[in-house]
Write a structure and sequence with these properties.
The chain is mainly alpha-helical. The chain contains 3 helices and no strands. Helix 2 packs antiparallel against helix 3.
Amino acid sequence: MHWGGDFGMGFGGGGIFMILFWILIILGVVYLVKIVLGGSSAAEKKSESAQEVLEKRFARGEMSKEEFEDAMEVLRRNKA
């Protein structure tokens, strides 16, 4: 008879490896789903230029024509 104190961990920590195995499987499935659904990280997204941001804000009505023109003038001066 075996009266050891392995507490059901199988052979030398096999239970830990089983848990790690399933964690890796789950992470792999999540990664594949993300790829299939077309998810992208922030690093992969194209950053918008300052001019594009201003144009979108103006189009949404977040700024007046005068504010937009002033901001665009500042951008033009900073480019030169």
